[in-house]
Amino acid sequence: MKKITPIILCVLMIISVLGCSQKSAVKDTFEGNVKTYFQMSDGTWMCEDQTYKHRLEIKGRMPNAAIDSSFVYLSNLEGISFEQAYKAAGISSNSEDYFSPEEAVLVEMN
Fold first, then answer.
1. Where are the beta strands (DSSP E) in the chain?
2. DSSP 60-86
3. Inter-residue contact 51 to 62 (CB < 8 Å)
């Protein structure tokens, strides 16, 4: 009986920890023209198993362009400039202009 009590306590602790760490449920699904992404019930966004705090719609006109462009990024950064957005969307040949998957991901562009 003495050996069973610590085992039961350990099992109960594991169950309580797992119960408190449940992931947020998917609230809505978006079929972006670059990637599919999800709005979660806790207000975050998810794409390819990475969670982001913000969904940013960034609009502007690229140099020498006839019309405006728009980019939608899921991001853990609070803001992304239009110049950063279009360079990271594939315009730049400099790898330093691109975001790491932890920072941001492009999900739509028009």
1. 26-31, 36-40, 45-47, 50-52, 54-60, 69-75, 104-109
2. E--TT-SS-EEEEEEESSS---HHHHH
3. no
Q: Which of 82, 66, 74 is nearest to 100 (CA)?
A: 74
- Separation between Cα atoms, residue 49 and residue 88, nearest integer Å: 20
Strand partners, 95: none
Residue 14: count of CB within 10 angstroms of its CB: 10
Domain range annotation of the chain: 23-109
- Per-residue tokens: 64: 């020498």
d(CA 85, CA 97): 9
Which pLDDT tens digit goes with each residue over 17-70?
444 445 689 999 999 999 999 999 999 999 999 999 999 999 999 999 999 999
